[in-house]
Amino acid sequence: MSVRWSKQRYTQVEQKYLWARLRSVAIHFLHIRKSGGTAIKYALKQANARSNEPLPTPLGDLILHPHSFKLEDVPEGDQAIFSVRDPASRFVSGFYSRLRKGAPRYNREWSDAERRCFGWFSTPQELADALTKRWGPKRKKAEFAMNSIRHLRRPMIWWTGEAPEFSKRLSQVVYIARQETLDEDFARLKSLLDLPADLELPSDPVQAHRYTGPNDKSLTPKMVDALREWYAADYALLEVCEQARGEILARQVTVDSSSETSEH
Fold this sequence. Notes:
5 strands; alpha/beta; disordered N terminus; five-stranded mixed sheet; 12 helices
């Protein structure tokens, strides 16, 4: 049976998704904001730059999704890959990214709410300090900002679900990368998905959506405590992710060791 689709009806991602559904199990890349996803997606696109079909791997066809795709959107039987990050570090990165309106990769104008927020807070430290307050005008402004700034208002659990829910879906997770160890994790991903050995993450800051200019990323312990409280659900998720990462890496080491033994 032949299947045809209209370019007017389906986006390129949807076309790849439909193609994968007709062929086999699919591996879905979830793009969690400010967690290294842009660099991973850029590299994976290079591995499949000449094809409009999903990237074939030993585990299934790999589909790269936009930010709107969540773990709950992954069909039963399919699996997922994504990257996470320490929420406090993600907060700092997200604040500066929106302060620059997405530069150097993008130029997305502030919303009216963001314009108000950046009039109140010119640095992530000012916002984090306001968040340490328990009540009063500064606290109200801080809460407004946390719920209004594009990269701050959606915690990582928006993509994965909260820790208890996520734990029930771990069987669908192939790999969890960390922004903090992205190079090592991408090397493991290449081995897992049998990708070309010379495939690398982008070094260009624009391609990686990474700012290399001067930014103060420091946070006082009190600020970190306030952020840990605000992003408590994300920190609970991170604990589950770290445990799952350990189990995934242990399995991969076992598989690699078995392969080396069989070759000898």
